[in-house]
Amino acid sequence: MKLRSLRAQLSLWHAGLLAVTLVSLAGLTYVMLRQMLHSRADAALEDYAETTAKTIAATLYQSTVGQRQLPKFLSNDLQSWGRYIQVIDSRGNVREVSDALRSHPLPVSTTALVRGMKGLSTFETVTNLGEHPVRIVTVPVQMGSKVPYLVQAGASLEGVDATLQRASAILLVLTPSVLLVGLLGGWLLVGRALKPVDEMTRAALEIESSSLDRRIVPPRTDDEIGRLAAAFNEMIARLDRSFRQIQQFTADASHELKTPLTTMRGEAEVALMSDLTPEEYRKVLRSIIEEVERMSAIVENLLLLARADANAVQLKREAVALHDIVMTVYEQMEAIARRKGVSLELEEIDEATVEGDPLWLQQIVTNLLNNAIKYTPEGGKVSVTLKGEVKGEGRRRQAGENDDFPLLPLTSSHFPFVVLSVSDTGVGIPPEHLPHIFDRFYRVDAGRSRDAGGSGLGLNIVKWAVEAHGGTIAVESEVGKGTTFTVRLPQVPGPAEDAEDAKAQRRDVEVV
Ligand code: ADP
Asked: What CA–CA distance (Å, rounded) separates 274 from 469?
């Protein structure tokens, strides 16, 4: 048995506590039993002595003065019950004894005599009278204020001793037996309770990265061990998910990089095998550069995501005019949209300031606009809006509202959020794909996306960036009709408003 094992430690504690409890209980039982037996014996003895004393007093009262004689009723008294009785006078001389005491009267102690003369009873235990100790009580025969005689009654403590001996024998056998049963039971119970922990340890040791789909079987689910097993299983499930994600990510990334590599190799091999004109060679090289650019974009995105995963991206925290960013991206994309025959329109652009990193905010708008143009066929339309979201009710007048009610002018500090939406009249996304489009490398139509230069990472990057800015992103789509991406970002007071607020405060100060 290893002393450091939990089972040994618990069992030892249990044994110690049980032993202390049982020994105290046995000791207490013995002491209480002894006290009870002694006090009952004393009470009976005192009762006997007092009855005798009263009888003597009554007899003495009845006899004529001067002829006061002790009654002769002690000789055949209760000695057969194991009790002895004697009468002594005030000087301690034995005047009457029961038959059993004729040769050996009870000893008379000075204390008992003195106390008796004061009208008090005294109990004493004498050990030298025989085999067993004898308990003696001395009570006064009270006649008014005088005490002419004292009655001494004695009883052997043989019965009490025998009972106590039997009781201690029982306790001496019972205590260790109960202790032994308790110890054995404790050892077995602790072992039973800890068995699942052993099993869990074995199972945990057997689970490796290749067998993360294995689970620990909890013995019962509603107790501590069961809950531990369930928590352990949940942890393995999370690990399993992360491992699978990493595996999937690695497989997807390799696949993504393999495609342009295969294309480049094919083109280069064909070019090498045949004699081409310089113009044709240039064409091949241009195509190869295109593939290299695509690969660079993928690698760049992968690096970005890897850094985001490792929390290694340092986002700037500065006030950024989001409307300016939307305008810049619009200007960059407008020509691309026109070349594709898609009209790109800015519908309603409110001024809005958000706190964040301008490069990342630009990335969000670029990716969304790029996707909208990419997945909208010729003749379609992509529209962009940027609107503040009203904070309190009644700020913005609704149709049909009482026009007499004066409304405060709206400033961006009344809008806690700014909403950027990018809508297109493109191919749309089937509903079963909607929950996955923000996943890495997820593409509804891989062929179409790759042809359009996509790698399935764009929306994942957008989602990460939006959330890193404390915002949310949502998508609504209908196949064949179009898609709308809605980004909500927390708004902060713009620099212009800050200046106005400061000016207003200055004015207030002047007025005061
Ligand atoms: P990709 O580089 O393939 O465009 P994204 O992560 O940007 O990767 O988008 C994931 C997938 O979501 C795309 O492959 C496409 O199927 C779908 N998607 C994204 N935006 C749109 C859109 N505006 N209209 C239709 N489908 C879209």
From this structure: 54
